[in-house]
Design a protein that fits this description.
single chain, 301 residues, alpha+beta, five-stranded mixed sheet
Length: 301
């Protein structure tokens, strides 16, 4: 959504600077751009020099903990935060440090800005007639959005709940970027009587996991990077094989295995990083919490 918001502000007549990302801890709030020049129409929160931020869309609301983590690192000046998800706290009780002015737009506020611009003719909606047959052939890359060479920077989709479940302390931890690899896999999955072609993305950050929906940052966070210690190869068969419900000849259904055909396996590797937290394990060694996958990696000395 970051590039969409930047395009929207350009369409509204703003001149934006998308270089020089402020240094903040990784979280759901991501930097979009800086306003270099305003439009002809004054809009609250859109002053010259204002930093534009977005929560991104998602089911998890913006809570006070996420807001405080973000606001603690804010540089002095004006900041516009566009909340594309629900807010779980009272916006009248915001803890803001001195010399920092934060304006929050809810989804309703954003809708009003866009609607007013449309009514005044300052924003045009372009429509293109597309041949349905041609449109169906275009499709979406099966490995979207990991297109190109990379490296790719994953966005934060998880909180710190995993630490609480394992009795680990987040207060003494530090924000890091975790180096990893995306395995873009295409293969044939064979069942009892039929087979199908599949494409999957497997993330390797010391722990191997199947990727769900992937969100990328439009910039590289400027924080320390770590590479997890790992010596285990990816077990593609274990990760991709499935048990599926299959009709039985005697009536009812049975769970039967659909397994990868080894000779059909094709893998492309691409570099990526994920936001995370690193802390000292009370049992010795260290732990890494991946905020993109929600996976907790613990390493003993």
């Amino acid at each position: 959504m970051g590039s969409d918001l930047a395009a929207l502000f350009h369409s509204l007549g703003f001149d934006l600077d998308q270089e020089g990302v402020p240094r903040i801890s990784p979280g759901i709030i991501q930097w979009i751009a800086r306003i270099n020049a305003t439009s002809e129409v004054l809009i609250a929160g859109c002053d010259v020099g204002s930093e534009i931020w977005s929560t991104g869309s998602g089911f998890a609301p913006l809570d006070m903990a996420a807001f405080e983590t973000w606001s603690y690192d804010l540089p002095a000046g004006n900041h516009l935060l566009i909340a594309e998800r629900d807010i779980s706290f009272n916006m009248d009780d915001l803890p803001i440090r001195a010399h920092r002015n934060v304006v929050i737009w809810t989804r309703d506020d954003l809708s009003r800005v866009v609607g007013q611009a449309l009514l005044e003719g300052r924003l045009q909606i372009d429509t293109v007639d597309q041949d349905p047959e041609v449109e169906s052939k275009i499709g979406i890359d099966p490995f979207h959005p990991l297109e190109g060479e990379g490296p790719f920077f994953l966005a934060d989709n998880h909180g710190l709940e995993e630490l609480n479940e394992h009795g680990l302390d987040a207060i003494s931890s530090s924000p890091v970027l975790i180096y990893g690899t995306a395995h873009l896999v295409s293969a044939i999955l064979r069942g009892p009587e039929e087979e199908e072609e599949i494409t999957r993305i497997i993330l390797d950050f010391g722990i191997h996991s199947l990727a769900g929906e992937i969100s990328l940052l439009n910039y590289r966070p400027r924080i320390n990077t770590v590479t997890p210690d790992t010596n285990s190869p990816v077990d593609f068969s274990k990760l991709l094989s499935q048990r599926r419900s299959t009709p039985s000849t005697g009536g009812g259904e049975l769970l039967r295995w659909w397994r990868i055909v080894p000779e059909s396996l094709k893998v492309i590797e691409k570099p990526l990083t994920a936001p995370g937290r690193r802390g000292i394990d009370p049992q010795g060694g260290y732990w890494l919490l991946n905020l993109a996958t929600g996976k907790l990696l613990r390493r003993q000395p």
